[in-house]
Each structure stands twice: as C-alpha cells, then as structure tokens.
Amino acid sequence: MRWTVPVAVAIAAGLACSPFHFEWPALRAFGNEPFWNVTIPVSDSIVYGRMGEANVSFPYEPSDYVEGDSALVLGPLRDPSDEHEITIRITAEDCQDTMADVVHPMRARVVIDGEELFGCARYLEKTSRGER
Q1: How much of the chain is in helix, strand and coil states, percent to nearest 5?
Q2: Chain segment 56-85, per-residue pLDDT in tens
Q3: Are 76 and 87 in contact (CB under 8 A)?
Q4: Distance (Å, whole) CA 95 – CA 67
Q5: 126 against 25, higher pLDDT
Q6: Among 2, 13, 68, 77, which residue has the fewest nearby CB atoms (within 10 Å)?
Q7: Which three-class secondary structure string do you get for 8-64?
Q8: Cα gap 54→39, rounded to integer Å
Q9: How far apart, in whole angstroms, are the C-alpha atoms of residue 77 and residue 54?
C-alpha cells in the first residue's frame, strides 16, 4: 500500500521514495515513565500498551494518515468500544532513549484519552518469527 507523505520525512527517515509517495513501514513508538508503547503495523489495528494496563486496539485504514509539514500524523482514532481515543505524531528526528542510552531515528508524540506522552520510534524489524 502507498500513502502520500512529505518527501522530506521519507528522505530523513532513509526510505526509498518517488517524488510524492513511499512505502511506510511498520513502526513501534515507546516511552518511559510511564512505560508505554504503540505498535503501528502497515494496516489493520494499532495496539497501545502501558505497563500494568490492558492493551487497547485501534482499527485504522491507510487513509487515516494525514500529512504534515515534517510529520506523519495518525488519528484521532477510536477503539471499537468507543471508550478510548488516540492520536499519533511521528517525526523524522533523532530521539535519545536515556534509559537505554540508544538513539532512535524518530520522535513520537501520542495523545491517549487526553494524556500527552512523548517518546521515540523505530522501524519494526522482520525476523524469522515475525516482527519485533
């Protein structure tokens, strides 16, 4: 599937791109204190998890992506029970994970039920057992 996103984001993220389109890979966004993560597959459902809480799935379609000047924005999306809302913003900027002392290629901003969370994002890796 293909989505239209800013070429600068594609280039900064190191993705192969044509003038206006590129293949957006699966991503994982995550943060510390509180510990949270969002898995963004190529399609179907985004899964938000937080330590000590049940995971929440948010169905989405590629058309839910919105272009920004230098960001990829997804949402707002609602879960099937209509109890939760999430918006995700990914930017192609280096992000320092201070707990792991690792630099990731993207920054993430997630708003879940009105709470704003900040963290890093990276591509999901394909392994013989699936994505991780």
Answers
A1: 5, 55, 40
A2: 999 987 666 665 667 888 889 999 999 999
A3: yes
A4: 21
A5: 25
A6: 2
A7: HHHHHCCCCECCCEECCCCEEEEECCCCEEEEECCCEEEEEEECCCCCEEEEECHHH
A8: 14
A9: 18
Instruction: Please give the helix or strand (H or E) that residue 7 lies within, else none.
Output: helix 7-12
User: What was the pLDDT predicted at 8?
Assistant: 40
In 3D space, the residue among 70, 115, 104, 76 whose CA is nearest the CA of residue 90 turns out to be 70
- Distance in angstroms (rounded) separating the CA atoms of residues 82 and 97: 32
Question: Which residue has tokens 């990731």?
Answer: 104
Residue 97 has pLDDT above 70, yes or no: yes
Write down the mean pLDDT value for the chain: 78
